[in-house]
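Handout, section 3.2

Students often ask what a structure token actually looks like in practice. Rather than define it abstractly, here is a full record for L-arabinose transport system permease protein AraQ. The first block is the sequence as you would receive it.
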Amino acid sequence: MQSNVDYAASSRPPQAAAIRKETIRRLRKGAVTAIMLLFAVAMVLPFVWMISTSFKTPGEVFAYPIQWIPAHFVWEHHLKIWTGTASFVPYYLNSLKVSLLSTAGATFLSALAAYGFTKVEFKGRDTLFLIYIAMMMIPPQVLFVPKFIMFKWMGIFNTHWALILPGMITIFGVFMMRQFFITIPKEISESAFIDGAGHMRIFTQMMLPLAKPALATLAVIDFSWHWNDFENALVFLISRELYTVPLGLQNFIMEFNVDYNGMMAAASAGILPMLALFLIGQRFIIQGLSGTAVKG
């Protein structure tokens, strides 16, 4: 009987320590969650204010305290950017053309190059890849003058091809797809090669179906880059009928520099495709990023 009492007494300190450790762990987890929630709210608030302001009257824009929900929803600002003299419809169509063609070319060419860097053996392959990756250190602004001269010579300056063709080449895309193809065992492509399949058949019928999550992730990221590209459009597009959404938004702000409601309505319209694309592709983004994690 005495031994049982001694055993129970001796077991209390470890149990108390375990409970204390578990409590500390939960407190830390709760603190981290609260901090992340605070950052998330801080990031979302400007977008909420932008959308809210697009439905307010001009007198409510700078009202204090802030009216997050307008007393009366005003739709004329949104109607103006779609049906007024500064309609966003041509800008949307131009951005969709540039973004979709650039993204389609970038995903295919990045996957094709990544396949060559991982599944095709040739001398100097790794060295060539390192040189290719090193080009990421070159600031894109340095290439504006060479691109300008080249596009003038090719006759594509002040056309959408000046944005589409360079947009099909992405170093990040090749790196990302290569990291994914590394995770695919060599035995799969080698067995198909022994059975008589060529590299193009292996790539199109075996590798691309396996790479759907990574391709979808790259497509979402690349589309957002092209949709928000302001610098290249500003340098290589002159005609107003060729403007994309970023240039159209800048042009709208310059013409209506005191119409804050209209500016917010135009900005809200500009981010709608990105929000829809992210909501549709968020599942693929998580799968693709987890599958392309850099290995040791």
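Discussion prompt for tutorial groups: The radius of gyration is 27 Å. How would you have guessed this from the sequence alone?
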